[in-house]
Amino acid sequence: MQKFPMTAEGLARLEEELKLLKGEERPAVIRAIAEARAHGDLSENAEYHAAREKQSFIEGRIAELETIVPAAEVIDVSKLSGDQVKFGARVTVVDEETEEEKTYRIVGQYEADMKNNSISISSPLAKALIGKKVGDSVEVPAPGGARAYEITAVAFR
User: Which of 48, 74, 100 is at the close of a domain?
Assistant: First the structure.
């Protein structure tokens, strides 16, 4: 079985999502399907088709999470330290062209969330940063051309 690196917080979020899907979402969509069936002709019943589509999505996500959660290899970031970028690090970089500063956390592929500045360890930026130290510059391939970043801070918390 392939193992997936993950933070404890990321695993907890996935376990909570799985619990919610199995305990609340799945029963609710089953009730919605039964209610829509009671309305008669299923061929022209939009509520029935929408509920079936939602059920399909929920069942697919449950199956996906039931594969990911047992295969998670939790890495305790609080026990990590050093000045080199590795899994779990919060890395502050400055775009050498725009001078814009951003802080990213390097996490597992199933917990990455750009809205929270969490990037997957398999992303081009994370791959470029891994093994580097404060003061190092990295070049990252991007659709609009390569971008250069300077690492200004590395922290584990």
Answer: 74
Domain count, the chain: 2
Question: Which two structure tokens, joined as six digits, stand for 22?
Answer: 């199995």
Same domain, 105 and 125: yes
Together in a domain, 89 and 50: no
Q: Pick from 71, 81, 31: which is nearest to 51 by CA?
A: 31
Alpha helices (H) in the chain, listed in sequence order: 8-20, 26-38, 46-68, 124-129
Sequence length of the chain is 157
Query: What's the token pair of residue 104?
Result: 């990213």
Lowest-pLDDT range, 19-28, 38-47, 48-57, 88-97? 38-47
**Residue 56 belongs to domain spanning:** 4-74
- Of 131, 112, 133, 134, whose CA–CA distance to 121 is shortest? 112
Angle at 107 between CA 106 and CA 110, to 5 degrees: 145
Spatial distance between the Cα atoms of 10 and 5, rounded to a whole number of angstroms: 10
For residue 108, the SS3 value is coil
Q: What is the pLDDT of residue 77?
A: 82
Q: Are residues 118 and 139 in the same domain?
A: yes
